[in-house]
Amino acid sequence: MTDGHEGGASGGWDPAHHALRDLVMAATVRIHRTGVGYAPEESGEFLGSGFFVAPSWVLTCAHVIDGGEEGEVTVVYQPGPFEEPCAVPGKVAATLPERVDHPVPGNWPAPDLALVRLREPVDHECVYVSERPMPHYAAGRVFYAGWTSYQGRPEILDGYLTVHGTIGGWSSGVQMRVGDNDLPPGVSGGPVIDPVRGEVVGVLKSRAANGSGGTSIGFERLRTLPTAPGERRHDLYRHGLRHHDPYQQDLYQAVCHAHDRYHRDRQQPTDSGRPTWTDLQADLGARPGRTLTPDERAELLGRLADLPPPDSTRGLLDILHSLPNFRLPNLSPAPRGWRDGLGALYENVRNDGALRLVTEYAMRVMTAERPVTPFVLDAEQALWEWIKQAATRLDSEYRSELARRRAQHLGDRSRERTGRDRGEHRAAGPAGEQGREHPRGTARDRSVLLEVERLAWNRDHCDWSVAVVRADGEATRLDDGTGAPLADLAARVAQPLAEAFRRCDEPGRPVPLLAALPHLLLDLPVDEWRLRPGADPLGVERPVVVRCKDRDQLPGEDDWYGGDHSDAGFPDGGPPDAGFPDGGPPDAGFPDGGFPDSAFPDPGFADVDEEEAVRRDRWRRVHAVRERAENRARAEILDCDDAVRRPVSDVAALRALAPGTVPVLCRQGDARYPDDATALGRIVRAGYGVVLWRRWSRQTDSVCGEFHRGTRMTVYQVDGAWELPESVHRLRKQVREGLTEAFWAKGIALLYDDPHQPLPGAGDLLRAP
């Protein structure tokens, strides 16, 4: 089990084991049937236990969720001992085996595993799952947790079990036998933990019909999950969420990569100060692979998870077989992901060669054949930094050899990109020159404009108007109002907006909504408003983007907004929800791929001042279609650095960013600095017409890594910024539909402010006749 130990914990109970117990129980969930009137504190419709194995993913037993209605279940979890339980809907994504005909009660066939995908994004703790290939052992003790019904109420319980060996021998259904403790009904699906290493090794599968104990199935059995026939795993990383059916992807790789990135990112600073799984593993004295510290392992696995997975199991096995002085045992199921390959090294190497073997494995993963994108290059560079740091403990000759191989790999990558770019240029012909603009004629011919003007003498009230705007700028005014409370604005504009949409929408092509807002209200959650009770949020129904209305009042380069502007006029410190929960959109984007025709500007700036010329030039650059990957627009996170909140720079520093930059705010609303309320205004003043941000949920322990990664990939994937309104629309839809891989985009917003299409009325609020 663990080097230097015969088995599990020796019986002592120290602070590290207290921390382990807290983390396990925070991640252990109970699973219920869906049903009207269900209350989290009741045991009704209780099916069994499970645990969070990655953000928004629950692992349990197949026989537990078999009682759900058409794959729909409710997942209930309790973040801490003094916090209220939370219920969230879930959808069964996969089961092993896929189908069981007439199962014998209490004897579900192995592996008896199921993955449940949450339908809504929530913050929660995740367990750490062992990457060892066969974490079974014949002696020692394991720790477990699960839920049961006690006196009509759900109760979580935990304890120790003694390992009594295995059932199944070399078969794919091998199970670990555990005993010496009672396992009441309901705990099936709960986690089984190695208390010495501080990692989950399996799932409670069954309890003994007579006597104590039961059986556990190893996490590694998930490697047998099927993939879509003919699917190349690299393609998911080349195209991301844009072009593939998320339910046909490799779920095993998706869950494992999300798991490893989560634990890597959890080592970044947070406000909560709660211990992490990596922290407690260090306290327990675990030494993964006989050579790595828990923190080194978490960082390595996280960097491997930033790379596309192996294109095939065969390719991974070829890498493992090629390692010097290493003999890969015959494992069933075979290693399938990068983390599995690392785990295969741990228990099959001599102590004196462990670090060199791990380093060599990481090097061969880094240089493996894969599609080249900026994200791949960044991930390979990050992995190389880890390799360099780890190799400082090895001899100088080997370090020099690694450096030479790295240089050769970079040369190969450069030649590959050059050849590809030349091929693309030839295919594109004369029109394929670098920086060409998106062709005209595919844009929408109408949009709906909502204008809001905040009252200077009453910060909590505003005037508003709704209009239909044609592509040539001509506006038809429909309705307006004065002195509306900001908290009631959504209700005031619902009917006029519905009328405007009715006039403009076509089947399958909802008209976009442009919200022209003053710079201190740019984060008003218009995309979360609903036209009527029970309707989808506006951001679900159609593309919703923001424009800046008061450019004449933007903060200047030397302006500093003294005093507390963090509330932007709202008593609670942020824009009013007005009771509108987070939403996400249907797939009703632009079939023609276009947005406003005016997004494609004239190159001449003779009649505009210098500041406006900079604004138009930035707009042109981020909208240009780039043939070369390195010339694409790039997202730049401005307010968050390795999960540490930092102030947004002043206007002069923002202007100095690269011309193709799309600014991104990770923590909009997390006001910690005096001028945070004007951050979006300063960005607009610096000449940016395209800005992405997410509304900070004020969760003190949220992990930022997935948002950073997702926005960078979203910006990279578009052919030009003209695609971003549709991309953001699609992301909102995917969040709404429960696509786990899109949950990073919860609360996403987009400023899309065309300098070539001035707002009607030259800044005057439209008035209905």
What characteristics describe this protein?
769 residues; Thrombin, subunit H; 25 strands; globular; disordered N terminus
Topology:
Elements: H1 15-27, E1 28-33, E2 46-54, E3 57-60, H2 62-65, E4 72-77, E5 86-96, E6 113-118, E7 141-150, E8 153-167, E9 175-179, E10 191-194, E11 199-207, E12 214-218, H3 233-239, H4 251-265, H5 277-284, H6 294-305, H7 313-322, H8 338-346, H9 354-366, H10 374-391, H11 396-428, E13 436-437, E14 446-455, E15 458-470, E16 475-485, H12 489-504, E17 513-517, H13 538-541, E18 544-548, H14 610-623, E19 624-625, E20 634-637, E21 640-641, E22 644-645, H15 651-655, E23 661-668, H16 679-685, E24 690-695, H17 705-717, H18 724-736, E25 748-752
Parallel strand pairs: 14-17, 17-18, 20-23, 23-24
Antiparallel strand pairs: 1-2, 1-4, 2-3, 3-6, 4-5, 5-6, 7-8, 7-10, 8-9, 9-12, 10-11, 11-12, 13-19, 14-15, 15-16, 21-22, 24-25
* Amino-to-carboxy terminus distance: 79 Å
Percent range for β-strand residues? 15-25%
Q: Structural class from helices and strands?
A: alpha+beta
**Sheet with most strands: strand arrangement:** 1-2-3-6-5-4
How many β strands by DSSP?
25
Our Rg estimate from Cα atoms comes to: 28 Å
| Shape field | globular
Q: Averaged pLDDT, please?
A: 80
Describe this structure in words.
- The protein is of the alpha+beta class and 769 residues long.
- It folds into 3 domains: 207 residues, Thrombin, subunit H (Beta Barrel); 195 residues, no CATH class; 318 residues, no CATH class.
- It is built from 18 helices and 25 strands.
- It has a 6-stranded antiparallel beta barrel with strand order 1-2-3-6-5-4. A 6-stranded antiparallel barrel has the order 7-8-9-12-11-10.
- Strand 10 and strand 11 form a beta hairpin.
- Helix 8 runs antiparallel to helix 9.
- The N terminus is likely disordered.
